[in-house]
Specification:
Elements lengths: L11 H10 L7 H11 L15 H8 L3 H9 L4 H12 L5 H10 L3 H20 L5 H6 L9 H8 L7 E6 L5 H16 L4 E2 L1 H4 L6 H12 E8 L1 H5 L4 H15 L7 E5 L10 H4 L4 E2 L11 H9 L24 E3 L5 E3 L4 H36 L1
Parallel strand pairs: 1-2, 1-3, 3-4, 4-5
Antiparallel strand pairs: 6-7
Length: 380
């Protein structure tokens, strides 16, 4: 992935001042994931002062204990993410500049160059809502029910945390699932819905699964789950753990109507589908299995959420076929799907009409001949 594309250049002095003023807690998942890609793999060669040039060296600079290091090693998905979470707990005044300096001490300037644009974007986003400073990061480090920048801003103003229309769960790290999830979130937010996407919104230092219980229980109306074979395989066990939490909340709160909503955007391997999911009717994004006039977006926005006056552009299918089918269905001007060539059903309809016309012509000829022969017999 090319991170530097179309990103404005910032002077080293400007970014240094911005990083010094920004709490490490405001980092978002995208930045941490890039750091993980660079540091999670162990390096053989060390720096001149014998420091390891991977996540282990970062953990040493942070000053993690033996037990904390065991937690880091147990976090197989992203060691760096666990280090940053522990760092935020140990040093509540840690800044983004401290992270950059630590990477420089490990001689990992490649990682700094790759993640710098994302760090700047995180700091600017935090500054926009007034929560980027190190002091504020320390103030809200122990705040409950705070997971996003918007939550921190609301807590600062003494306001209630905003509710979410949708809590969207998907398999992070899978390219197809990531692409569809972000597409779905973009459509919903453009329609005015409030969406919580953990892979995008959770701040560094947040105890995600512990806080997610409170957030899902008290602030979420619906949980959308982007289901796929990769999601069901659940190699880390995180998906099953989170789903059990969601299912427990749904069972204990009967007022939540259609709380769990599975989304099916491509074919499932039936042997991998969880029993609990198989018992719920999913929203099927695929047009090829639902008929020519089925529209997933119209069903979701107009029927499920009861939204009025939805922009017609939001109920059109994208050119990208997430299901991976080579069908030739495209969007019409009215937002419904239209076929660019005759489908099998259309060809069958034409054949049936032709057959009925032939039968009708045969019946007409039969009655005409019968009348002629009848008149001849009367003459004799």
């Amino acid at each position: 992935m090319k991170i530097h594309a179309d990103f404005p250049l910032f002077s080293r002095k400007m970014t240094s001042e911005l990083f010094e003023q920004s709490s490490l807690r405001i980092l978002r998942p995208a930045s941490i994931n890039v750091l993980g890609l660079r540091l999670n793999r162990r390096k053989i060669f060390t720096t001149r002062d014998k420091k390891l040039r991977d996540y282990r060296g970062l953990a040493e600079l942070v000053g993690l204990s033996f037990d904390e290091m065991a937690e880091v090693e147990a976090a197989e998905n992203n060691h760096v993410k666990k280090i940053i979470v522990l760092w935020c707990r140990k040093q509540k005044t840690a800044s983004v500049e401290d992270l950059v300096n630590a990477l420089g001490a490990l001689d990992r300037h490649d990682a700094i160059d790759d993640v710098r644009p994302l760090l700047v974007a995180d700091c600017e986003a935090a500054r926009a809502v007034g929560v980027n400073t190190v002091a504020l990061g320390a103030t809200y480090a122990e705040a409950r029910n705070v997971l996003t920048l918007a939550d921190v801003a609301a807590s600062r103003r003494g306001e209630q945390m905003r509710p979410f229309d949708v809590f969207l769960v998907h398999e992070t790290g899978d390219d197809d699932d990531d692409e569809f999830a972000y597409h779905l979130v973009e459509r919903m937010e453009m329609a005015g819905l409030k969406v919580f996407l953990p892979s995008r919104d959770v701040l560094a230092g947040s105890v995600y699964h512990a806080e997610a219980v409170t957030v899902i229980k008290n602030r979420v109306k619906h949980v959308f789950i982007v289901c796929s074979d990769t999601f069901f395989e659940d190699r880390s066990g995180a998906n099953r753990y989170l789903y059990n939490i969601i299912e427990s909340i749904a069972m204990n709160n009967k007022e939540k109507d259609r709380f769990i909503v599975p989304i099916k955007y491509k074919k499932w391997d039936k042997s991998k589908v969880w029993t609990q999911i198989s018992m719920i009717q999913p929203f099927d994004h695929r047009r090829s299995t639902q008929g020519r006039y089925y529209n997933f977006y119209e069903k979701m926005f107009c029927r499920f959420f009861n939204l009025q006056d939805v922009d017609t552009r939001l109920i059109k299918y994208p050119e990208r076929d997430f299901a991976g089918n080579d069908n030739d269905v495209r969007n019409g001007e009215n937002g419904r799907s239209v076929s660019t060539s005759s489908s099998r059903s259309e060809q069958l309809t034409i054949a049936c009409m032709t057959l009925w016309l032939q039968l009708f012509s045969l019946l007409l000829s039969f009655f005409a001949n019968w009348r002629i022969f009848g008149n001849v017999n009367e003459a004799y």
